[in-house]
Design goal:
The complex is a heterodimer.
Chain A lengths: L1 H13 L1 H39 L4 E5 L15 E2 H12 L4 E15 L4 E9 L1 H7 L7 E3 L13 E5 H6 L7 E7 L5 E12 L10 E4 H7 L6 E2 L1 E6 L5 H12 L11 E5 H4 L2 H37 L1 H9 L4 H36 L2 E5 L2 E6 L5 H27 L3 H6 L2
Parallel strand pairs in A: 4-9, 6-8
Antiparallel strand pairs in A: 1-11, 1-12, 2-10, 3-4, 3-7, 3-11, 5-8, 6-9, 7-8, 13-14
Chain B lengths: L3 E12 L2 E13 L4 E5 L6 H8 L7 E6 L2 E2 L5 H11 E4 L11 H11 L5 H14 L15 H13 L5 E5 L7 H18 L2 E6 L2 H4 L4 E6 L2 E7 L14
Parallel strand pairs in B: 3-8, 3-9, 6-7, 7-8
Antiparallel strand pairs in B: 1-2, 1-4, 4-5, 9-10
The chains are: A alpha+beta, B alpha/beta.
């Protein structure tokens, strides 16, 4: 086999310029795929991290029917304490769940005593919330000097930056929040503006924050209720299987109508960025298809030329006793070797490119998020599959020419001029 | 039993709408260790005869047995294996592999056909190259050799597997007369040394004189066979080709 490989390399070197050009073309294809995968993968991971760690959480659990009507923030689809206890039991029993946090979502009127506007609020238990969304505090700026221990205290509100700016509200100002409870009665409370939060991408990206105890007071809840349970997993890569486990466990609970009492969604169902992520994946697949086409056409062309130019040589090989299988193996090895050289060169250049991009840090803006840092990387698994695809296509492209060579009649091939 | 037994073979080719009879009802036998030539003008059927004996082609009619085996019905793979085990081939245009060195060209049948170990291969290749006087050229590529040297390498490649029969189709056609005679004498020396049967074709009267048995073909028919004892006639091979 080593000798066949050696002969294959010699045959490739026979037409140096052609081999070099073909190899360069494939190398370029591999390089493009590695750079695109590295950049797009980094962008995707960063945006998903922003969405799940700073705002939405990885998984959310609601009362059945809430998500389809979440734009109206329906208070009558809140979970009572019994429902929350059942959800907690399910979450406790799953070792893949790292943390969870209750939230109350509400709409209110915000007044600075001279102007009034609508605001969507996310009422949180700050200690639990930071475990589920560890980056939530990174979006916030606080008026207090020095380190702030709690994200939010009772009596405080954190307002979205655009809204605060529009209403000319500063940190430390007092505002009034007025809200309807689920029975329709109205209640109002004074709050101190403790901080300002940056807007992020997604349906919950423009919400202000308040303490969950204040929400219960404002909404005059006689019994504790929550709107949703936000969940964080130990390993984000196991999102789908854990989601299925939780869905199955929660599906056992039925409401009075014998229908599922809860609904569970991953971030993918809750954020429009999922569609962008899908588009990125689709573009990545397109890049790979382009690369496959380059490899296929380039190697097919080289191998067809190689067979036509070496008909007499094939005749000689066959005449002196080389079996058709070995002739085929020789040409397949040539195609494989061309692919191997190209994937090696493409991988080395591609990884060097990713290394350089990490040195010369690339920053960009996405939506209202500025100064985002791209840290391109590519996994070993992806590199392995890329190499496997190129090598497989190289062999596949060589199959027909190699088969043609192996089927030549030696007497005809020797006569070839 | 003869090494090659040809029983009433014919070979027809279809050239467009015309059928050409390349060989017609030829019957002959060739003994082991013979030094045989097929002679005749162009188109007389010499190459066809060698192709049929060498299992490169199949007769339209008749039977061929080589080394006791009927070769008419061998498929492509069986034919290749049989050729690799019984035959050595020498071609008019040398047909050396241009990307391989002289050593590697001679080694090729041992690697690709015989699957021999590296140490065995090396020993056999060196012996074969020494026998044809090309040991000092073993690291050169074919394009660095003269025509006569290339044909010597081809002889070494044909003999390295120790075949029973070497077929050489017009092995001297691309060589000047002196070189051609030397190549033929080299072949005969190899026959003497290894007891290998040599069958070659030629249309050069000076070369056909070197054969012990001359089969003459005309229009696809064997017109006569002439045994020619060479006692006292052989000249020594001049290796300075």
């Amino acid at each position: 086999m080593i000798r066949i490989f050696k002969i294959a390399v010699r045959n490739l070197m026979r037409y140096k310029r052609r081999t070099l050009l073909t190899s360069l073309l494939i190398t370029l294809g591999v390089l493009m795929v590695i750079l695109f995968s590295g950049l797009s993968g980094s962008f995707k991971a960063m945006m998903i991290g922003q969405i799940t760690d700073a705002n939405l959480s990885q998984i959310q659990i609601h009362k059945k029917g809430y998500v389809s009507s979440m734009d109206s923030i329906p208070l009558n689809l809140n979970l009572n304490s019994k429902g929350y206890a059942k959800i907690e039991d399910v979450l406790k029993s799953n070792s893949s769940v790292d943390a969870w946090a209750p939230r109350i979502k509400l709409g209110a009127m915000l007044s600075n005593y001279s102007e009034t506007t609508n605001i969507r609020l996310n009422a949180i238990d700050p200690e639990k919330e930071v475990k589920v969304c560890p980056a939530v505090g990174n979006r916030m700026t606080f008026g207090e000097k020095g380190q702030r221990k709690e994200l939010i205290r009772p009596g405080e509100v954190i307002l979205p930056d655009k809204l605060a700016k529009g209403m000319k509200i500063k940190q430390g100002d007092t505002v009034v929040l007025v809200a309807n409870n689920k029975d329709g009665s109205v209640n109002g409370l004074n709050f101190t503006v403790a901080g300002i939060t940056e807007t992020v991408v997604g349906p919950q990206g423009k919400e202000g924050y308040m303490h969950i105890k204040d929400a219960r007071t404002l909404l005059r809840m006689e019994q504790p209720e929550i709107t949703e349970v936000a969940v964080r997993l130990n390993d984000f890569d196991r999102l789908d299987p854990v989601y299925e486990d939780l869905k199955s466990a929660l599906g056992k609970f039925k409401n009075k109508n014998e229908k599922p009492a809860f609904e569970i969604h991953t971030w993918e169902k809750l954020s429009p960025f999922y569609n962008i992520a899908r588009m990125i994946d689709l573009m990545s697949v397109s890049m790979k298809l382009i690369m496959i086409s380059i490899v296929l056409i380039s190697i097919l062309n080289v191998m067809i030329m190689s067979v036509y130019e070496r008909v007499r040589e094939i005749g000689t090989m066959s005449a002196i006793g080389t079996t058709p299988g070995k002739i085929m193996a020789l040409f397949l090895t040539e195609g494989f070797t061309l692919g191997l050289i190209s994937i090696a060169a493409g991988t080395i250049i591609g990884l060097s490119g990713i290394f350089l991009l990490n040195i010369y840090k690339i920053r960009f803006s996405f939506g209202r998020n500025d100064n985002l840092l791209l840290e391109p990387s590519i996994s070993f698994t992806e590199l392995f599959w890329l190499a496997a695809i190129v090598l497989l296509i190289s062999v596949f492209a060589s199959l027909h020419p190699a088969y043609k060579a192996s089927k030549m009649e030696p007497v005809d091939a020797l006569r070839h001029v | 039993m003869a090494l090659v037994e040809i029983d009433n073979i014919s070979k027809n080719y279809q050239m467009g709408e015309v059928q050409v009879q390349a060989l017609r009802n030829v019957t002959l036998s060739i003994e082991e260790a013979a030094f045989v030539s097929f002679v005749g003008p162009s188109g007389s059927g010499k190459t066809t005869m060698l192709n049929l004996i060498g299992c490169l082609d199949k007769p339209t009619k008749g039977k061929i047995a080589v080394d006791g085996k009927q070769v008419n019905d061998l498929d492509r793979k069986q034919g290749a294996i049989f050729r690799g085990s019984v035959f050595g081939f020498i071609f008019q245009a040398f047909n050396l592999f241009p990307v391989l060195t002289v050593h590697e060209n001679v080694e090729y049948p041992l690697v690709m056909i015989k699957n021999e170990s590296a140490s065995d291969r090396n020993e056999k290749v060196l012996k074969a190259l020494e026998a044809v006087g090309m040991l000092d050229q073993q690291n050169k590529r074919p394009d660095q050799l003269s025509g006569g040297q290339k044909q010597r390498v081809a002889v070494a490649r044909a003999l390295v597997t120790r075949p029973k029969l070497v077929l050489a189709d017009e092995p001297t056609a691309n060589l000047d007369h002196k070189t051609a005679v030397n190549v033929i004498r080299l072949m005969r020396d190899m026959r003497d040394k290894f007891n290998t049967t040599f069958i070659f074709s030629t249309h050069d009267p000076g070369i056909m004189e070197e054969a012990e048995i001359i089969h003459t073909l005309e229009d696809g028919q064997l017109t006569h066979s002439t045994p020619r004892p060479l006692n006292g006639k052989e000249g020594k091979n001049d290796s300075n080709i």
